[in-house]
Design goal:
Blueprint: E1 6-7, H1 9-22, E2 28-33, E3 39-40, H2 44-48, E4 54-60, H3 64-76, E5 80-84, H4 87-108
Parallel strand pairs: 1-3, 2-4, 4-5
Length: 109
């Protein structure tokens, strides 16, 4: 995202399109590396929660303002949501929750 942008519902539509195109019927984790400073309309997370195969969101940032923002976002997102300092940490977490999701879905079936 560009510096100063506000992320709102139209961006969620883009995420849905990408999910349908690249991850149709496959679980995935959305990773956002917040290098630039931008705002997120927290209501977008309620809509993101409705994407069935989206199982989690990882936010990468060391900016104290972004850390505060993600606390609010996490409270509105009804699935796994976690803040990380590095991409490597986020990728490791993504792998863990994907494995857990696959294992749990096998137990249900």
């Amino acid at each position: 995202m560009k510096e100063g942008v506000t992320v709102f519902s139209k961006y969620n539509d883009l995420l849905k399109m990408g999910a349908n195109q690249y991850y149709k019927n496959k679980p995935f984790v959305y990773i956002t590396n917040r290098i630039n400073s931008y705002s997120v309309d927290p209501a977008i997370h309620m809509e993101m929660s409705k994407i069935k195969n989206l199982i989690g969101v990882a936010v990468i940032s060391s900016d104290p303002r972004q850390k505060m923002q993600t606390k609010l976002e996490k409270s509105l997102f009804k699935k796994e949501f976690k803040l990380f300092e590095t991409l490597e940490q986020a990728l490791e977490w993504k792998n863990e929750i994907l494995k857990k999701h696959i294992r749990d879905s096998k137990d249900v079936n």
